[in-house]
């Protein structure tokens, strides 16, 4: 699966469960770790966990084997390493605290339009 297809699949899985403020950051040329970072907010620990699990389920259905994941049990912040795409799902206060968007400023950013 191409990295742009994987990116769109992850975003769609987040949108399915009403993730808030989905942001995509193109980090190609900025890091060798991944090509894209997706950052999204959940409204509660349960929502964060559900969002992350939905992304994992959808990518696995398409034959993508995640490299790893962290934080699914806690619900404050989940990290999904899909190889070319890394997905961060956080509660809003945690997202504000870590401010990954500012950390990666200068990288190409876009906010996905999600349906309310």
From TrEMBL:
Keywords associated with the record: Cytoplasm, Repressor, Translation regulation
Signal peptide: none
SUPFAM superfamilies attached to this UniProt entry: Nucleotidyltransferase
KW Repressor (keyword) present: yes
NCBIfam families noted in UniProt: rsfS_iojap_ybeB (TIGR00090)
Subunit structure: Interacts with ribosomal protein uL14 (rplN).
Family of this protein: Belongs to the Iojap/RsfS family.
Protein name: Ribosomal silencing factor RsfS
Protein species of origin: Pseudomonas fluvialis
